[in-house]
Amino acid sequence: MRPGHLLAVLVSAAADYLARRDQATYAQALTRAAVAFAATLTLVATLTTAVKAIST
Predict the structure, then answer these.
(1) 20 and 12 in contact (C-beta within 8 Å)?
(2) Are 7 and 44 in contact (CB under 8 A)?
(3) Does the pLDDT of residue 2 top 90, yes or no?
(4) pLDDT (tens digit, 9 = 90+) per residue, 15-53?
(5) Residue 10 half-sphere exposure toward CB, CA atoms < 13 A
(6) Are 11 and 44 in contact (CB under 8 A)?
(7) Which residues are CB-contacts of 41 (< 8 A; sequence separation ≥ 6)?
(8) Considering the entire predicted model, what is its pTM?
(9) 4 and 44 in contact (C-beta within 8 Å)?
(10) What is the reported pLDDT for 18?
(11) Phi-psi region of 40 (alpha: psi -120 to 50; beta: other; left: phi over 0)
(12) Cα 16 from chain centroid (whole Å)
């Protein structure tokens, strides 16, 4: 597993946990986790592209 993917999984797990602590239903918690996962992967991809562009 790549570091970016691992980070995204950890962020989504934390979002799910915090949503459940906030009395969210399982469906709402899963939705929040999915959004956090997608946002993290997008951020990692953007940062990777920017670093590659700078280093070349």
Answers:
(1) no
(2) yes
(3) no
(4) 999 999 999 999 999 999 999 999 999 999 999 999 999
(5) 7
(6) no
(7) 4, 5, 8
(8) 0.88
(9) yes
(10) 96
(11) alpha
(12) 11
